[in-house]
Amino acid sequence: MKVWVYTDTSKPVGEPEHLKIFATNDAAQSWFKRNVPGGAAFAYEIILGPRYLAKTLLVLSVLLLGIADLYTTNTILNLGLGELNPFMHVAQTWLGPWWLIPKLGLTYFMMWLLWRSNNPYNIAIVAAFCSAPVLNNLLIIAGTN
User: Fold this and answer.
1) pLDDT tens digits, 19-78
2) How many Cβ atoms are within 10 Å of 112's Cβ, its own excluded?
3) Cα–Cα–Cα angle for 136, 114, 31, nearest 5°?
4) Integer Cα distance of 63 and 133 in angstroms
5) What's the CA gap between 47 and 44, in Å, rounded?
6) Which three-class secondary structure state does DSSP give residue 20?
7) Which residues contact 20 (CB under 8 A, 6 or more apart)?
8) How big is the chain by its Cα radius of gyration, in Å?
9) What is the dihedral of CA 105, 124, 141, 78, to 10 degrees?
10) pLDDT for position 36
């Protein structure tokens, strides 16, 4: 993964306009065409540490827990029991079998919000909370057998 950096030597170091950092080469070229024709940005490799891997795995675990919640909830519904979450109960009533669309939409939205966080400990806490409905569903399923 790379970023492109342009340094404006006419600005003092530390001033916000001294450095411009671009996520893509296309973004840099577009900015140069409008602001500094003939300017150049240099590509630098981003060094991702172990926290990035932890963050990725935690956010993916939220997705897996969301899918597990869908599966276990469907199992409970097939056993003739009902949904305890009032929001999902309304979605099931209004949308029928398509209730999983808002459920997955909320899961993806939560993943997007978590990805914006820079603190893997906060992401881990949210992932732990996401495991609670799955564990509850598994206990309900085990209790019916």
Assistant:
1) 888 888 888 888 888 887 666 778 888 877 777 888 999 999 999 999 999 999 999 999
2) 10
3) 160
4) 13
5) 9
6) strand
7) 5, 6, 8, 28, 31, 41
8) 23
9) 10
10) 77
Which DSSP symbol is given to 15?
S
The three-class DSSP label of residue 96 is helix
Distance separating alpha carbons of residues 137 and 66, to the nearest angstrom: 12
How far apart (Å, rounded) are the C-alpha atoms in residues 136 and 4?
A: 48
CB count, 10 Å around CB of 55?
Answer: 19
Instruction: Specify the 3-state DSSP secondary structure of 23.
Output: coil
Global pTM value: 0.65
Please state whether 38 falls in left (phi above 0), alpha (psi between -120 and 50) or beta: left
Chain-centre distance for alpha carbon 128: 15
